[in-house]
Specification:
Elements (H helix, E strand, L loop, with lengths): L23 H27 L10
Length: about 60
């Protein structure tokens, strides 16, 4: 019996990802996505400060 059988095995190494070259359209698309994500995050933060939208009243 070898000493490795009872122990934890080493994980296999993942293959290296190939670097993908981005053209101008891809760069613009990613930049636009980042801006939209930042705007949504800012809007969500501001919405939490104001409280409920409707005045409410008595619910039946």
């Amino acid at each position: 019996m070898s000493g490795r059988q009872g122990g934890k095995l080493k994980p296999l190494k993942a293959a290296k990802k190939e670097k993908v070259e981005l053209d101008d359209d891809d760069k613009a698309f990613k930049e636009r996505q980042k801006k939209e994500q930042a705007e949504l995050k800012a809007a969500a933060a501001n919405a939490g400060k104001k409280g409920p939208l409707a005045g409410g009243g008595i619910k039946k």
